[in-house]
Amino acid sequence: MSSSIAFNDVWVEYGDQIVLERLNLAIAPGSFVSLVGPSGAGKSTLLRMILGQEQPTRGQIMLDGEPMRREPGPDRGVVFQRYSVLPHLTVLGNVLLGFEFAASPVTARLFGAARKAAIAESDKLIAEVGLAEHRNKYPHQLSGGMQQRLAIAQAIAKKPKVLLLDEPFGALDPGTRVQMHDLIRFLWKDCGMTIVMVTHDIKEAFALGTRLIALDKKRRDAQAPGRFGAIITYDLDLTRDSAVPVMGFKPLGFKPLPPSTPAQSQGAH
Amino acid sequence: MRRMMNIAPGRGGRLLLGLLPFVLIAMLYVAGSAERRAANPDDKLLPPVSEMAAAIKRAAFQPDRRTGDYVLWVDTAASLKRLAWGLGIATAGGLAFGMAVGILPLVGATLAPLIGVLSMIPPMAVLPILFIVFGLGELSKVVLIVFGIAPFLVRDLALAINNLPIEQLVKAQTLGASSWQVAIRVVLPQIMPRLIEAVRLSIGPAFLFLIAAEAIAAENGLGYRIFLLRRYLAMDTILPYVAWITLLAWLLDAALAWIARRAFAFAYVTERR
User: Using the beta-carbon criterion (under 8 Å), do B176 and A98 form an inter-chain contact?
Assistant: First the structure.
């Protein structure tokens, strides 16, 4: 289950400051899009627009060919860099919450058999992200990596068609980050959702994405820094059958440079 | 030598240091009382502890000659009843309105300016109006307490809700929550500790309004009694009454603090001690 996302001529302006200009972008269902770019280039703005947390000043965003609802909803899951999990609920409580919201409009709580069934399903997700032994802990008792695992479990409980990741692994140590990459790659293949991930880590962007989009301000006016917004400067297809030369893939006519030998470097003396 | 800011007392030391000022004040009082009594056997300003004990015994354990009431308990019950009604209504109303103002932008836009203005009206200035409108009975006293602290609670809660990370509210919506569900499962549990803290801070003002109202028009109550006895310069009863009011307020504060820590432990994990 995955969705296509399309931006038609989208502009974002804050007052007289233009953040994004004339954005046209079509994201195919099931793709894993990495969004990179310098700070202030509008990566997170773009993500928040898909989320429904922010609205474009001009233009339209389509989800599966229909104009998107102008607020967040259960069809689009999200994992933020911080504050994604609720501090007053345990690991189990956090995952359970999605089921409770869906089944119980008034009390937002489940009782009896319904609660048992929801707990069983939540436990399955908690085990899937490797938190089974921590299910009764509160978020402040978890490490940063474990909190992000929890946020992911919480998000995929709703089986979203789109999963949005806003620098989800930015605050994690390199070892934990590699583990998280494996987890998210597995879940992406398993659930088959469309993923859009904002990241500052170029290596991560290439390693995970099937498509890489770079945003940057191409034109600058020294007198009016807000006059021009960011545009898409690179749009790379990272799938194996693409013709774009990217790290780890050999396009046609590619000849590797001869490795430098110890003899050569000695000859320089 | 370590910096002063890094030198902290141990458990026993903390207790000892905390008791020290109380002991000092008690010693000063006893010495002052004895000195005045030596100079003037009829001194009423600093009665000795024995006279205060006798006055407490009269007020608490002997029926009043005229009415047959045990005055201290009748006064305490009357005052606590008014206080409980006032604090209870203010807390419930403050919570409901604070959440509505903090969560729903339309309600916030409508009510926040009004509450901002209301909270600037000195409650004591409207006390005459309350007496005129609600009469001199219990209602006007309860309304004074509510009027005095509810606007503060509303504003404090709305601010606390504004300080919740927007990420949490967005995340809850992506989990399918409605506004109501966000309110009861995401916002409410997280602002309960703040509500309890705000009520704790309101105990002082609540007692202030209570005693002021009782002083002006009442037939019983702790505030009524001390203002009545003022006419007779009966410091031997007034001082124990003040201590008793203080003890009640302190117990209420401690009970609320205990509840907050027991029920909402998650809110206190990052606290500096």
Answer: yes
